[in-house]
Write a structure and sequence with these properties.
Blueprint lengths: L1 H17 L9 H14 L4 H8 L17 H16 L1 H18 L1
Helix pairs in contact: 2-3, 4-5
InterPro entries: DNA_brk_join_enz, Integrase-like_cat_sf
Protein name: Integrase
Organism: Bacteroides reticulotermitis JCM 10512
Length: 106
């Protein structure tokens, strides 16, 4: 894995130079981290992101190594919970759909 990772890092540096990407290094790890962060931000479930990254229970690497919650995500979550408390009926179709999807994944 070490040789492959070094080769990929070298290629990514050449790519960064070609694309005029300055400030910091573009590496294999940074590409994985960026993918995971963007996927989480658009709502892709963590188990799917972990699968895409090749993580498993066996590797003991978690998605938390790659993704961090941003303040706007926390603000949106708090707002959504308050909306749910104030008007739970609005969320009923979503909750029912999510329950059905979860049952399909089992």
């Amino acid at each position: 894995m070490g040789n492959l990772q070094r080769y990929i890092n070298k290629c990514m540096k050449l790519l960064a130079k070609e694309l005029n990407i300055n400030g910091g290094s573009l590496t294999y790890y940074s590409a994985r981290k960026t993918f995971a962060q963007f996927a989480a931000e658009i709502g892709i479930p963590y188990p799917i992101i972990e699968y895409c990254l090749g993580h498993s229970i066996k590797t003991s690497i978690t998605i938390n190594s790659y993704v961090r919650v941003k303040p706007y995500q926390a603000d949106a979550a708090i707002k959504r919970v308050v909306e749910y408390v104030n008007n739970p009926e609005v969320f009923r179709p979503y909750i029912e759909m999510r329950s059905q999807i979860q049952m399909m994944l089992m």
